[in-house]
Design a protein that fits this description.
One of its GO terms (molecular function) is oxidoreductase activity. By secondary structure, this protein is α+β, with helices and mostly antiparallel strands. The protein has one domain. The protein has one helix and three strands. The chain has a three-stranded mixed beta sheet. Strand 1, helix 1 and strand 2 form a beta-alpha-beta unit. The radius of gyration is 11 Å and the shape is flat.
């Protein structure tokens, strides 16, 4: 899953990923329209 959004949201996502067995996440920070992009998206 890729997350797109603000740096504040990025910090929260990284903290949650680190607390729940270090899940791999990709972040694109600085956007104003947050999205969740799944693997099967066209």
């Amino acid at each position: 899953i890729s997350f797109i959004g603000s740096t504040e949201v990025g910090r929260l996502i990284m903290a949650a990923a680190g607390q729940s067995n270090l899940k791999s996440v990709t972040l694109e920070l600085g956007g104003k329209s947050p999205l969740i992009v799944f693997d099967d998206a066209d």
